[in-house]
Amino acid sequence: MLASGLENTVVVLTGAAGRxxxxxxxxxxxxxxxxxxxxxxxxxxxxxxxxxxxxxLTDEASVAQTFAQIEEELGPLGGLIHTVGMWGxxxxxxxxxxxxxxxxxxxxxTTFLCFREAVRRMNGRExxxxxxxxxxGADGGVAEQGPYSAAKAGVVRLVESVAAEYDGRITxxxxxxxxxxxxxxxxxxxxxxxxxxxxxxxxxxxxxxxIHNGEVLRAYGTMP
Length: 224
What we know:
Layout: E1 10-14, H1 19-30, E2 34-39, E3 50-54, H2 60-74, E4 77-82, H3 97-122, E5 127-132, H4 135-138, H5 146-166, E6 170-177, E7 180-181, E8 192-193, H6 194-205, H7 208-211, E9 216-219
Parallel strand pairs: 1-2, 1-4, 2-3, 4-5, 5-6, 6-9, 7-8
Helix pairs in contact: 1-6, 2-3, 3-5
């Protein structure tokens, strides 16, 4: 994998307290990035080079205020890795409106709000945007996962649209895991390790973002 090109670059990482987010924080620091680690609660014990910021990423004003604070404290934004998301499933006929709204808000609306604010902050400069999609969004919906499949398909189209608009100056791309393996899964479970997914995110936030602008990198692993 190519060198990231992220030395001394301010990178916003959302969902930084999560299992993927914490690994991605470490990977970003290893390549010299300055990490603005966003989550819904203060993150304690962050290593040097990472700073905790608290935000409700479903709220437009909270996103704008937090990105402004990041820029004031850390400097101009160079990248965004948006790992916030959720999964859920139910028979379609039993899917409640609240479940639909929540799935789209967490997976798609947060991506829109963070991408948009990052683009505004990158105004006139280069930048990298990275989202988390899924196989359900990249290749086809899955039974009893209607809201999730729709939300992740929206993430894919949003990435493509943003990439097309900024002509490579600001790039947008996504990683689409099948299942992220965090350890402890049953033997033979198909998926990709959290370390590998984090590596892909960092790659796309650096030099890989130019190569794969507008693309979704499918990370499905192999059949057991």
